[in-house]
Amino acid sequence: MMRFLLLFSRQGKLRLQKWFTPLPERERKKIVRDMTTLVLARKPRTCNFLHWKDLKIVYKRYASLYFCCALEEQENELLALEILHRYVELLDKYFGNVCELDIIFNFEKAYFILDEFLMGGEVQETSKQSIANSIEASDMLQETMEEYMSKPAF
Amino acid sequence: MPAVSKGDGMRGLAVFISDIRNCKSKEAEIKRINKELANIRSKFKGDKALDGYSKKKYVCKLLFIFLLGHDIDFGHMEAVNLLSSNKYTEKQIGYLFISVLVNSNSELIRLINNGIKNDLSSRNPTFMCLALHCIANVGSREMAEAFAGEIPRILVAGDTMDSVKQSAALCLLRLYKTSPDLVLMGEWTSRVVHLLNDQHMGVVTAAISLITCLSQKNPDEFKTCVSLAVSRLSRIVSSASTDLQDYTYYFVPAPWLSCKLLRLLQCYPPPEDGAVKGRLVECLETILNKAQEPPKSKKVQHSNAKNAILFEAIALIIHYDSEPNLLVRACNQLGQFLQHRETNLRYLALESMCTLASSEFSHEAVKTHIETVINALKTERDVSVRQRAADLLYAMCDRSNAKQIVAEMLSYLETADYSIREEMVLKVAILAEKYAVDYSWYVDTILNLIRIAGDYVSEEVWYRVIQIVINRDDVQGYAAKTVFEALQAPACHENMVKVGGYILGEFGNLIAGDPRSSPLVQFNLLHSKFHLCSVPTRALLLSAYIKFINLFPETKSTIQEVLRSDSQIRNSDVELQQRAVEYLKLSSIASTDVLATVLEEMPPFPERESSILAKLKKKKGPGAVSSTEQEDGKREGGELNGGGERGADSTIAASNASTPSPSADLLGLRSSGPVSAAPPSAGSLLVDVFSEAGPAAPAAAVNDDGFLSSAPPSVVSEDPAPPMPQSDELLHKFVCKSNGVLFENQLLQIGVKSEYRQNLGRMYLFYGNKTSVQFVSFSTSVTYTGELQSHIHELSLNVQTKPVEPLVEGGAQVQQVINIECLTDFSDAPLLNIKFRYGGALQNLTLKLPVTVNKFFQPTEMVSHDFFQRWKQLSQPQQEAQKIFKASHGMDKEVLKGKRIMENFVCAGVIQTKAQQVGCLLRLEPNAQAQMYRLTLRSSKDTVSKRLCDLLAEQF
Asked: What is the pTM of this model?
């Protein structure tokens, strides 16, 4: 499973953090520090994988943002790279040409999209269409429960 | 684009975020945040009830502040309130806040659980998914207690929407991982397996993660998943690249599902059903073939997804380790990747090859890539790739290429990154010792190591070279000469001075014949380094000097003068001063004979495992040391010269030379005989806890009296296995011993420490995982056998065990405490059953717990007169048990504390049980001529006499 996913900027500013196992706040902060220093120090065109403690770190840079996740020993690094990519695609589809600012101002949406895609550190749904549909459906759910319930079933 | 999105629902939030972004300094940001916190606090505390929208907005602001890295200590209650909102977006923000901020042990959990419960029963799929996500995110025990029963029902119910099924599967997985005891297997489990056949690919993708985890823990219950997984995989692999619509990722059909299917299959051995196996092999071949086809897209996503499947297939091939053809193909494929222009692929190929190197089918094939790997070590620009290359070189090393690999690693060390130097040094040291055919090469290598990377050479490494030089007289002269030459360098590392001081102090005489290295030259050379060294090294050098006085009387006056100088004899360091004073005195008053005795050459070190490897393991964590070690241990374990037998006799040292460097010795896994006189080792050696143990229990089956050996020990079933044939033998080893290695095989080592007082005992069992792979479902149980069982109403022993962790990481050790109360005397030992899964295969073994009645023996002091009076009182035939037997260990042992009367040994003691105390008297009469003993036991209880006699007779 994936243990955590972090999005941070080139300046090391954390933009999104998702922890799939409970950790004390202090530990989280330390990991974030370690990850940003470790990843930001990497030279361009080096490989996207690192060993860190007993975890595999997979990261990739998209424009000004680094997407970085930690995997357990037996997980597949290449596939994790594509998880990151698919997440970027999902953000892109939702925001239309996503940029760092979209994620800053709509961080809650970034979380909701991630939740549709991953759960408990495992891939829940890989279809771009299904995820987009359910995000859209929840965005449409602005009406109250009563209104919703009184509507004819679809 | 959805109409309502992008935060325009919450203008206040967007304004606040902009404000923060416009802050010029950290201070300004903190000021703005504090202002906002005060504002929110007053709003929450205010009399006016907040509407849902405001609450949502403020909670969201708090969340943002938290994510900026500030502590938030309020607002939780408001977030929980949002859960019961009937507006979806409010509910959603409430759940998000809880997922991000609520600890699993929060008091709010009960309230949150209430909200979740309502949403789960709402039958609204969107709400249900929100609730399931929240459970998975928090995953606390209270939540597991509340919902572990409900979620399986949702998962398998016929009318559950697909999206809810997906969430339920992964939510259940999360709960199973945190609280496996609360997720009860049941009727739903078989239906879960059939989700592999589900129409909806998303459902399969989610469910398979759950199935994989459940299979790892309960392989038998889930084994039907193998054939289902194979057929699903086969359908995906053979489908055209567009068949699966949105589940095709850059022309690769369902890469995530394929990888998960291949991972699931890695929980099991190769399928037994020929048809299933054939189909699977076909799939694996297709995947390997596809790697050779031209890519369908130039995008990196295409090749990544395709290769992800390929690597997962290779992992499965390696896991099966039974298809030589596939293994070699896998190896060739990885060989191609070694030269690929994608750094990622080179990295992964190096990593996968490490595991391939440990398979006997592919070890040779891996070796053919040695030049490429060496090249990678030299030319890769990325340190993490170079690190993998170094790992692979280490894994592919064997006798045939050791010299080349060690030389390459040494030359790489000169420029290696600081972060990996220490590890490299350890690896070179291990390989040099493991594959040393001639020891001059070994000495050269280690001295080179010190020269190149002295700072990274830990004590273990230089201690080890000294141990080996001392134990092998064929290399001593060479070592003295080489170290002498190395010390000529104007600047040499302190570790070199240490090795030099020690070796010249012992064997300087071997090169003293040459005038260029005459005693005085040697001394002056060493002493020229003295002042640059730290205190411990100086102390070592002083000892070398006193040894010189013995070796070369002509240096005596020079050395005495050095010792006498104020800088030594009045040194402010107490250790140096003491040595100087003592050595000076010793050299002036002791006669040559006395001096020669005191300063005699060091006796050989007891052969002991190298602690270097243990250090390497510790450094890299479990799984770091490739499984080659285990493999080698398996292959060469037979020839290891068991440490226990090794005496101080130097003829044995000579015979050692013929089996150079028993590799198993290096493993740091096998416990050896005597307590080592070697320098202290690195601490958390797997075997350290056993360092006072006797020879390891023989792992090979011992031919016992045979009454138990009808069942082979390898029978693997869920029922506790019958005791192993050798379990009696093992038991007898512990009759007079409380600590040691109870059992050892290729996977597991079990050590025992025990202590007894009166009728109570406490035993510590140490289960050491000797492999680099974790053991799962590790469990132990203690049961009674035979006689103990039949008296169930009057148990003889009350044994309480504490459960052990179900996971034992590779190289790790877990401890279990067992409390024992002796209620009444007993003959049979309790059985200890151990079960675990190693790479999917169930291991099941049963041993006798080393608890024997004599453990509860308390010695009694008694004058001989009393003894014989009591002896006569116990004269009824049933009170006595007697055995006459041949001495099996020679006749110099006294096992029990006793009094010696003429040629008789007698002992007296009391067996302490809860029910009664049984007085026992023992008489042992040796007949030295016949090498026979007569052992007589008398006690107030016939069963005790008999059992003690049986037990003790084995000990002489």
From this structure: 0.66
